Amino acid sequence: MSKQGSNYFIADPALKPAAPSSTTIQQGQLESSNTGSAEAAVRLVSVMRQFEMLQKAVSLGAEDE
Q1: 24, 39, 43, 55: least CB-packed within 10 angstroms?
Q2: Alpha carbon distance 51, 59 (integer Å)
Q3: DSSP code of 17?
Q4: pLDDT tens digits, residue range 6-62?
C-alpha cells in the first residue's frame, strides 16, 4: 500500500492477495460473542445513568448563566 495524501492509501495493482491456507468454512454454525450479554446490559445501564447525570449538570449550569 502506498500513501496518497494525509489519510488515503492505495493498493499496488501488481500485488494480488494470497488465499489463506489454514481456514475452514462451517455451515450452520453461530459465531459466539466475546462478552456476556448480562455484563453488557449492566454496563449500558451504568453508562446511560452517567450520561443523564452529566446532561442534567450541563443544563443546570447553562440555566445559571
Answers
A1: 24
A2: 12
A3: P
A4: 889 988 888 888 888 888 888 988 887 777 889 889 999 999 999 999 999 999 888
Q: From CA 25, how far away is CA 19, in angstroms rounded? A: 14
Write the secondary structure of the chain as one string of H (helix), E (strand) and C (coil). CEECCCCCEECCCCCCCCCCCCCCCCCCCCCCCCCCHHHHHHHHHHHHHHHHHHHHHHHHHHHHC
Instruction: Please give the Cα distance from 61 to 55 (Å, whole number).
Output: 10
Distance CA 30, CA 51 (A): 34
The letter for the amino acid at 39 is: E
The string of pLDDT tens digits covering residues 48-63 is 999 999 999 999 888 7
Grid cell listed for 43 = 454496563
